[in-house]
Write a structure and sequence with these properties.
- The protein is α+β, with helices and mostly antiparallel strands.
- It has two domains: about 5-235, Rossmann fold; about 240-355, OB fold (Dihydrolipoamide Acetyltransferase, E2P) (Beta Barrel).
- It contains eight helices and 20 strands.
- The protein has helices spanning about 45-55, 95-105, 110-125, 140-155, 170-190, 200-205, 225-230, 235-240, and strands at about 5-20, 20-30, 35-40, 60-65, 70, 80-85, 160-165, 190-195, 210-215, 215-220, 245-250, 255-260, 265-270, 280-285, 290-295, 300-310, 315-320, 325-330, 345-350, 355.
- The strands form four sheets. It has a six-stranded mixed sheet, with helices on both faces.
- Helix 3 packs across helix 4.
- The site of adenosine-5'-triphosphate has 10 residues, from helix 1.
- This is Spermidine/putrescine import ATP-binding protein PotA.
Length: about 350
């Protein structure tokens, strides 16, 4: 990841060991100031463990957690200057909204007068100033989560940790709150780390995404770079690319490569350090494969349609090319040509979106 900004949070060789099992191993991470970074990965890869070590709820086995250059890895949670929002709200049920938001300020010895001003500002930010006197049980799930957010940011923390903050909400509400969360985080410029299972949420909210695999970071990039250019088979599969095949690199020049795939040769625009003569894996998204007539003059892979399903605005095809099964996804535009099962076709792969993966 290109990192020209300074980093508020730096993890250095962070490790959490349970007996002989490393839940997190030698993890290095820099989170640029003011940005939102998401930890994404399959269940059990260590996301929550990283977050809990940063918060101070879990002891580190070895390594460092630096916030603004200062090692906090052995500090008490209360002294870490970190705001947190969890999936299950965790508001104090016996306190009003106002008292919930004021709690952290009170603990820090902020004067009563300043508490009132800052609580009002924070509640206005999440559009809940009118509900200041209610109790959590008198609020909807979305409102409770907004209070939790106000409570986390009112202390002006150096770091905001968001652990599935919208996970308990239904889809519609979730999308509205994603937008609000993004706006608020940008406005306040608080360096934030998000853990989520929702890939769309990660792609929408994040400045950077770190994909984790077995306690380590497999790839860290901007959402677009990650989506367009997964570097390993693990990341490509995790991000839902169905077309991943073995290929051979036939030749290369400064910027391009020709690969052997399914018994044919195809151009690729980005060779990403791969050398001619080597074996590799290649990944391509269904929307970057055009299904055309078999007699189309363009360079492509000849195949046969195995399934064809019209789904809303798209047609999803499975096409067999020798032994390889491709999934292609064509828009149902007004003049699109319909191919049926058994039809011989040609697959035209977009060379700019045919990605060579690390072995
Ligand atoms: P999920 O997406 O399911 O929440 P995660 O990526 O957050 O998963 P973690 O909760 O960080 O995963 O767990 C990482 C690994 O550490 C898992 O394999 C888990 O079983 C293991 N682990 C967690 N806590 C303990 C513990 N107390 N003792 C032993 N192993 C543990």
């Amino acid at each position: 990841m290109e990192n020209l900004q300074s980093s508020t949070l730096q993890l250095r060789k962070l490790t959490k060991r349970y007996s002989s099992f490393d839940a997190v191993r030698d993890l290095d991470l820099d989170v640029p100031s003011g940005s939102l970074l998401t930890l994404l990965g399959p269940s059990g890869c260590g996301k929550t463990t990283v977050l809990r070590m940063i918060a101070g709820f879990l002891n580190v086995t070895s390594g460092q957690i630096l916030v603004d250059g200062k090692d906090i890895s052995r500090s008490e949670p209360n002294f870490r200057d970190i705001g947190m929002v969890f999936q299950n709200y965790a508001l104090f049920p016996h306190m009003t909204v106002e008292a919930n938001v004021a709690f952290g300020l009170k603990m820090r010895g902020v004067t009563k007068e300043e508490q009132v001003t800052r609580v009002r500002e924070a509640l206005e930010m999440v559009q809940l100033a009118h509900l200041a006197d209610r109790y959590p049980s008198q609020l909807s799930g979305g409102q409770q989560q907004r209070v939790a957010l106000a409570r986390a940011v009112v202390i002006k923390p150096k770091l905001l940790l968001l652990d599935e903050p919208l996970g308990a909400l239904d889809r519609h509400l979730r999308e509205g709150l994603q937008f609000e969360l993004r706006e608020l985080q940008k406005k306040l410029g608080i360096t934030s780390i998000l853990v989520t299972h929702d890939q769309d949420e990660a792609l929408y909210l994040s400045d950077y995404i770190a994909v984790m695999n077995q306690g380590q970071i497999e790839q860290i990039d901007t959402p677009i770079a990650l989506y367009d250019k997964p570097r390993s088979e693990f990341v490509a599969r995790f991000l839902g690319v169905p077309n991943i095949f073995d290929a051979r690199i036939v030749s290369t020049d400064a910027h391009h490569a020709t690969i052997g795939l399914g018994g044919h040769t195809m151009p690729v625009s980005n060779m990403d350090g791969h050398a001619a003569g080597g074996e590799c894996k290649v990944a391509i998204r269904p929307s970057h494969i055009e299904v055309v007539r078999a007699d189309d003059g363009r360079l492509g892979l000849p195949g046969v349609v195995k399934t064809a399903h019209e789904l809303g605005e798209r047609v999803v095809y499975h096409v067999e090319v020798n032994d390889l099964k491709f999934e292609a996804n064509t828009p149902r535009s007004s003049n699109f040509e319909r191919f049926t099962v058994g039809h011989p076709v040609k697959l035209v792969l977009d060379p700019a979106h045919t990605v060579l993966l690390r072995a």
